[in-house]
Amino acid sequence: MMLAQRFSIITIVNSVVAMQREHIxxxxxxxxxxxxxxxxxxxxxxxxxxxxLEKIYAESVKAIDEDSAxxxxxxxxxFLKIADAVAQGLAETGRGVPVVDPNCAxxxxxxxxxxxxxxxxxxxxxKQNYLEKQD
Length: 135
Prior knowledge:
By secondary structure, the protein is α/β, with parallel strands linked by helices. It has a single domain (7-115), classed as Rossmann fold (3-Layer(aba) Sandwich). It has helices at residues 17-27, 49-67, 83-92, 102-115; strands at 7-11, 33-38, 71-74, 99-100. It has a 4-stranded parallel sheet with strand order 2-1-3-4, sandwiched between helices. α2 crosses α3.
């Protein structure tokens, strides 16, 4: 929500859509959710970067034009090294929206926490001694 008011998720196959919709619901961000679009490529087919890029770009255009998305989030960590190309293609056609690669976002967020010496609140997340017997 810091990047755009509405977002769409581009994912691999339809079978993961329900799970991703449930995440949106649980996070309480349904009002900001535009759509989930599938590229219909199983993970094992993602090795062909040209085909993946073409399909991801096409679904991103549809998410922006048809679903009013203002940002694109990849719903698969297998979409490696594609975000920059998708963002550039979108910008070249007048659709300059943020394209978020979950791999880069997660690593960058971890770096932010480490640099700022931040971790979870022990009042919220009790630190359990894992050497003790667990129930």
